[in-house]
Amino acid sequence: MDKKKVLIITYYWPPAGGPGVQRWLKFVKYLPEFDVHPVVYIPENPNYPVIDESLKEEVTDAATIIKHPIKEPYRWASMFSKKSVKTISKGIISDYKKQNIVEKLMLFIRGNFFIPDARVGWVKPSAAFLQDYIQKEQIEVIITTGPPHSVHLIGLNLKEKLGVKWLADFRDPWTTIGYHKQLKLTKASKKKHKTLEKAVLNKADQLIVTSFTTKKEFEQITKQPIDVITNGYDNEKHTSFEMDSKFTMSHIGSLLSKRNPEVLWSVLKDLVAQNSDFSNDFQLNFIGSVSDEVLQSIKNNSLSNYINNVGYVKHNEAVKYQKKSQILLLIEIDSEETKCIIPGKLFEYMISNRPIIALGPKESDVEKIITETNTGKYFYYDDYESLKKAILEHYKGYKTNSLKTQPIGLQKYHRKALTESLSKLL
């Protein structure tokens, strides 16, 4: 029996690094096992903020990859300020008071001249190219995944012209994502975002979201079917490592300006001052981009000497850091908008057998998953005493070599199980 051809339209694909790549890289890996032949459409000349060449090895030979050129505004913007472009394209936006005139101008242009995002110039040429390809290859189903949400406009265009079945996958929400407030959108720009969002949510045949909160949000805008398929974990290649000799607390991924838990730094400052053994054993690992504001907060709490600021590493290296760390930190911005954010790294954290300490808003989807799976402890930004107590308990476990987790029900988050759920929607 011939496998069903499904066209997947995505901006992020190896050698792009970061969490946005993993979701569809893994779906594409497992889809052939469910009688689906994935055809992946990507930009020919993208401007990825983070590169991880090792991810190329994970692209399955069973997929067909097609490419088309893209005009990247971030390239010409780099002529004015390479640093600002790099941080903005990674999602790191510094506090408004600390932005220079170039950064303020670039954010205004990004927010109001490129709607929904800086890749909007790829929409028309892609739709024209894919219209011919879909008819020639007799493709019946297309999938778009965002961000960038301009990718969904390609799906909208193809739906209107060809009537092809269309699934729109949202790895993040659209108009309620936290950084929208920092883009200095005019009233007209906000309205345009809302109009485009509503069009996509109502014209797509099926919506897929990564969180339960986003599903509830979208249900207020559309009556189209919405399924939650979270991110997940995959079987990683076995790598040899030794557990850290220090009492390491490691954060993997970006620490944005507002992802800055002062309560945690305050607790650690006091533990270091009050307990000489803790002070000798403690180390704070940052694996990924860290904003200047976060580093300044840590300096203000006299913790700079305890930092091991590694920076971005390849995915397989990040996995090794996860497995050998004593504690894994998961930090989210304390706001209503971030309750729906479930970072992809959470699922890798959960199978690393290391306790998770998570901080974020009350009643978040992350809190629900961590509690259900018994993989760590979740704290709010005002939980000084309980956070301090938990870190001390973990420190005692470290000293007695008994620090580990007892997870429950992780199998449903395996990438293959999640792909099976996706295949049923196709």
TrEMBL record:
Name of the featured protein: Glycosyltransferase family 4 protein
Xref: Gene3D superfamilies: Glycogen Phosphorylase B
Coiled coil ranges: none
Domain Glycosyltransferase subfamily 4-like N-terminal: 112-236
Organism: Flaviramulus multivorans
InterPro entries: Glyco_trans_4-like_N (IPR028098)
Signal peptide: none
Pfam families in the record: Glyco_trans_1_4, Glyco_transf_4
